[in-house]
Design a protein that fits this description.
This protein has 432 residues and is an alpha/beta fold. It is built from twelve helices and 21 strands. It has two domains: 153 residues, Lyase, Ornithine Decarboxylase, Chain A, domain 1, CATH 2.40.37.10; 258 residues, TIM Barrel (Alpha-Beta Barrel). The structure holds ligand LLP.
Length: 432
């Protein structure tokens, strides 16, 4: 019935998550409220770790792409589950540090790392810099030299694989702001530059073809292209690169139309291709990193809202206004993303009312979902939007000076706050 295994319906007809009644959670913690199920997150982390054990002799490690949801508790969980972190900013590095995360397991991404961020990352002993461009390579080499340290680096490569997903989240093709192109020789020149430099050590190559991808084939193709490149580097430059980072992007279920494949199928297929290609070039089978973000937290999360006004416009549509919207979930406004909406107060009733869920911002485009079916909605009902664990809180804003919601973690019938609700004082705290 639901897109997500941790959801159920109890005897009161209320939606439950991780054994907690969502209507009670809404009362206890207030709305809007982000709710995450800890077991789903941990099980997904384990399935990725196990896929390396099962199909790749344990010769790899998942890194949690913390842009999907960066907070101290997620860093702690990633550490407990023996996975590393992908970070993209000083703020995400700081979050990892504050959570006591082992910094050698952190990969620092981004297409425009500032000098201050690079210094901060070196001081924090971040494990690897995924270098995006030649300017950054030089900057990093200079700063590392001034600090008397060597930076371990990877190169972000555009493998030229065009994954079928939303335009804004496709990144593997040549027209992308991220990384070095293979076709033009740009990537090969970057490798030649890096091996001349004294304060960087090229350990890894990286690619990421996009996000919310369901086919395994483009991942396999990208892996093969990357090994071809490693083979060329060995043959022409005599340099063996021993680590390969294949990025993230594994699709999740937002609605019943989505059909994700079990995540372990990925390593099953990719490992065969990587081993065969490595043998072809006579290079050691590389240590592999993958960077799942959305698939670790996405389906584990839901957002709860309280229904305010209902506006029926005859022959057009019925707007149901909720107490959040684009400030806590920008994804419909930005990408017209599909979501499943459930009337959590009447989860046992047939979803036969077609509504448009509107947010509370002064913005006509502030919609969470249009023309979606839910059980008949009344003012005061709790509405749940499913699969909001990824790229919701992390993309939230204070537009209209709306405080960001709290986030709670549920686990087998218990709940705890992991991110406090912002207050009005928080809203003005940097105003002078
Ligand atoms: N690695 C790199 C280098 C990435 O750029 C990304 C996502 C990931 C890993 C994680 O991808 P995931 O497994 O989460 O799909 N805001 C958009 C998604 C942007 C993704 C950016 N990069 C959304 O809400 O759909």
């Amino acid at each position: 019935m639901f897109v997500n295994d941790c959801l159920n319906v109890n005897g009161d007809g209320h939606l439950t998550i991780g054994g907690c009644d969502t209507v009670e959670l809404a009362k206890e913690y207030g709305t809007p409220l982000y709710v995450l199920d800890e077991n789903v997150i941990r099980e997904t982390c384990r399935s990725y770790v196990n896929s390396f054990k099962k199909f790749y002799d344990g010769n790899g490690m998942p890194l949690y792409a913390s842009k999907a949801l960066s907070c101290k508790e997620l860093c702690r969980i990633a550490n407990e589950e023996n996975i590393g972190l992908d970070v993209v900013s000083g703020g995400e590095i700081y979050t990892a540090l504050q959570a006591g995360f082992p910094m050698e397991k952190v990969h620092f991404h981004g297409n425009n790392k500032t000098a201050d961020e690079i210094k901060f990352a070196l001081e924090s002993k971040v494990g690897k810099f995924v270098v995006d461009n030649l300017y950054e390579l030089e900057l990093l080499n200079n700063i590392a030299g001034e600090m008397g340290v060597t930076a371990n680096i990877s190169f972000r490569i555009k493998p030229g694989v065009d994954a079928h997903t939303h335009n804004f989240i496709r990144t593997g093709q040549i027209d992308s702001k991220f990384g070095f192109a293979l076709e033009t020789g740009e990537a090969f020149n970057a490798v030649k530059e890096a091996i001349k430099l004294e304060n960087v050590c090229l350990k890894e190559l990286h690619c990421h073809i996009g996000s919310q991808i369901f086919d395994i084939e483009p991942f396999v193709t990208a892996a093969e292209i990357m090994i071809d490149f490693m083979g060329k580097i060995k043959n022409e430059l005599g340099v063996v690169i021993s680590e390969l980072n294949l990025g993230g992007g594994f699709g999740i279920m937002y609605t019943e139309k989505d059909e994700p494949v079990p995540y372990e199928n990925y390593m099953e297929k990719v490992s065969v291709a990587v081993k065969a290609k490595s043998a072809e070039y006579g290079i050691p089978v590389p240590f592999i990193y993958i960077e799942p973000g959305r698939s670790i937290v996405g389906e584990a999360g839901i957002t709860l809202y309280t229904v305010g006004g209902k506006k029926e416009i005859p022959n057009i549509r019925t707007y149901v206004s909720v107490d959040g919207g684009m400030t806590d979930n920008i994804r419909y406004a930005l990408y017209q993303s599909d979501y499943t909406v459930v009337n959590a107060s009447k989860a046992d009733k047939t979803p036969d009312e077609v509504i448009t869920v509107a947010g509370k911002c002064c913005e006509s485009g502030d919609l969470v979902q249009e023309h979606t079916k839910v059980a008949e909605v009344e003012v005061g009902d709790t509405l749940a939007v499913l699969s909001t664990g990824a790229y919701n809180y992390s993309m939230a804003s204070n537009y209209n000076r709306i405080p960001r919601p709290a986030m709670i973690m549920v686990n087998n019938g218990t709940s705890r706050v992991i991110i406090k609700r912002e207050s009005y004082e928080d809203i003005v705290k940097n105003d002078i």
